[in-house]
Amino acid sequence: MLNETYLLLIPLLPLAGFVILGLFGKYFNPAKRGTGIIGTLLLLISALLALYVAYGYFFEFGKADGVYQKLIPFQYTWLQFSEGVSIKMGALIDPISLMMLVVITFISLMVHIYSLGYMKGEERFSTYYSFLGLFTFSMLGLVMSSNIFQIYIFWELVGISSFLLIGFYYEKPSAVAACKKAFIVTRFADLGFLIGILILSFYARTLDFNTLIERLTSPGSTEFNMAVTSSFLGISALTWGMVLVFMGGAGKSAMLPFHIWLPDAMEGPTPVSALIHAATMVVAGVYLVARLFPVFALSTPHALELVAYVGAITALFAAIIACAQTDIKRVLAFSTISQIGYMMFALGVAKYGGEAGLGYTAAMFHLFTHAMFKGLLFLCAGSVIHFIHSNEMKDMGGLRKYLPITHITFLVACLAISGIPPFAGFFSKEEILLAASQNNQVIYWIGLFTSGLTAFYMFRLYFNIFWNKAPSSSVKSRGEGGFVMILPLILLAIGAVFAGFIPFGNFVTSDGKPLESVFHWQFSILPVLFGLVGIFIAMKMYKKENQIPDKIAASFGGFYEAALHKFYFDEIYLFITKKIIFNLIGKPAAWFDKNVVNSLVNATGNTTEIFSSKIKRIQSGKVQQYAVYFLLATVLMAVLFIYWWK
Amino acid sequence: MLQPGLYHILFISTALFFIGIYGFFSRRNLITILMSVELVLNSVNLNFIAFNKYLWADKLDGLFFAIFVIAIAAAEAAVAIAIIINLYRSHHSIDVEKAEEMKY
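ok -> structure tokens follow
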């Protein structure tokens, strides 16, 4: 049976790490890395507990009549508004939340171990580990939430942790700007999320996930009828609610209009990028859509279409930009945006239940494998940056002699992400494209083309780092990082190779009933072909140093320039905010506040002052005058007393 | 010769009362102001005795109250002299027009 203590300990151990390392970290010597070891050990226990609970759920007690149940082991009533309405905080375990627990604790553990080597010599070593603990706690709490308001609370906590970690090197102005941008953009999207929560909870009259989903998906219930009949600007209230909730998810997952913060978030330390911006936080949006998937699929199919198209367009767009970037972490950031786009459109093309729910399984499977290979890619990038002390591709080249293990694991990850069998990415991408081809041909072709682009830019990155030029003479022959930096690479590489063989359909499906995973080999020929073509083109262009890349860039001309500048999204947003919003809304509002509101308040003060200066002469300091007033008042009262007293 | 009636004594006490008040309002010397206050108190005494004699001849209430008033007047004069002495120490003058610091 489920051991509730273990389940509760999983998020609480990293929280304890945060508190202890935050309060007492300064007593530890940063050079001895004791705080890192404490943080890592706490997380190791957490990861083992997560595996234990997940094993128990998936193989022992999770099923009832062959369907995976959504269990709520504990719940605590936090706020009671009235008889029927209350906010209960609790834990919800079902296939996706347990899968996320395993992923998060494992990747976080890898990042903790890796950071022992990468952050060595850092002054604020203990602060770093306490922030990592806070982040892990927030993310674990997010996936275990049983209540949409609780998920919002943890959502914001994750945002704060990301802010703290991106801005870790706070003396760099670019890092400060980046963490502010990340927080503000995601906070803006969370406004939509909050309004969506309010709409949904208003109509369903509950905040609890299970009850909410049940009430909003049964066509006969009063809540459902009211939600679909009341409309605003021609769209039903329920659709608005789901679209706004998706807006929140899109912000956190860096989908198209809100993707601007993720490339800049690369200012943080590389292990942080691996943890937060590759494997864990950015998938929170996907997780949210998956959590509310029954409502999306059964009650608001238009909202689900929106999810699908936003995901597909983001995937394509980010892949194009990644082809032109020169900073290796920016390439990986756009790759992340693209892959999350894949997960989103996979969810978008799925239907609820049975075979048609393949997209749901595919999205979660891709989330799992992506965490492996993207985490690995970022940690390898960190290894390269640690060696070269630069992020730019032009400073790298021919590093395969100096960083052999990084080289092999990076190659494994690139093959995985390009969808080459038998690596993990092949299986998950094939399932996504299969689900897309069954439902929406346009999205299928976009996905296919993007996978070709993915292979191309990943191998462009690979060849530019490890082949291409001979290494420059200034390269120090220091070798790779120590054992603590290599171990996570190897473990993640093992995951990237073998994770594809897990029969995901047996565990995670849209309605809980296990799905038989059939391997359609004729179907997979086309995606693999696109991938191989991409790899081949990249090999021709980048393996040896030559002029082909510059010639092709020149022939694309303006399009290449636009892709290099990320299609000018940042400039457009800056223009909109500075020239339009500040000038048309900000300045008039400020003028109104300074001149009108201030004057009103000052007027009150001024009137009182003028009035008082007129009557203050009564207090003359002369006792005899006071006596006169006294007498006059007494006479007046005597007269009143005599004539009016009945 | 008229026998003194109630109204005659009331007339005197009222006159004394208003003379005292006028003196309080218009004199500059603190001691003179104190004297005017004594005049007011005495006029009140006269009032009490007059009413006692002409209205309630068999009772002694007015008499008692008049004695209270005399005692209180004495105490109050003592306090007033103390205040005047203090004021003299700080202002070196007993002109009431000079003691007007507590104004706007």
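The longest helix of chain B spans residues 61-91.
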